[in-house]
């Protein structure tokens, strides 16, 4: 008589979560806000970032620019900075109607 064999269980691996790339637009409320980041060097030779925030909803077309961001900022950090400035009214925004999804 032999022993019962032990049942082998599959190891549980937690799902690696990724940062979002599309955000909610504060003007229209849809999940269509995309942020384009570009790196550049300022006059002092420091690396900085410039962001273009755009809503891809053809009915909204929100646009805004954020400049002189720290080089460590990612898209999520830029979105939170955009929301802060948008809610305080410190940001120049404009609307381009009729823009289609690229």
From TrEMBL:
InterPro entries: Elf1, T_Elf1_sf
Official protein name in the record: Uncharacterized protein
Pfam families documented for this protein: Zn_ribbon_Elf1
Keywords tagged on the record: Zinc
Organism per entry: Zestosphaera tikiterensis
Superkingdom of this protein's organism: Archaea
């Amino acid at each position: 008589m032999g022993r019962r064999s032990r049942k082998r269980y599959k190891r549980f691996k937690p799902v690696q979560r990724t940062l979002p790339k599309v955000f909610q637009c504060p003007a229209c409320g849809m999940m269509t806000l995309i942020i384009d980041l570009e790196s550049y060097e300022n006059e002092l030779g420091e690396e900085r970032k410039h962001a273009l925030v755009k809503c891809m909803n053809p009915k909204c077309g929100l646009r805004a620019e954020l400049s002189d961001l720290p080089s460590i900022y990612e898209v999520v950090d830029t979105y939170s900075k955009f929301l802060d400035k948008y809610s305080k009214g410190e940001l120049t925004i404009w609307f381009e109607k009729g823009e289609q999804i690229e």
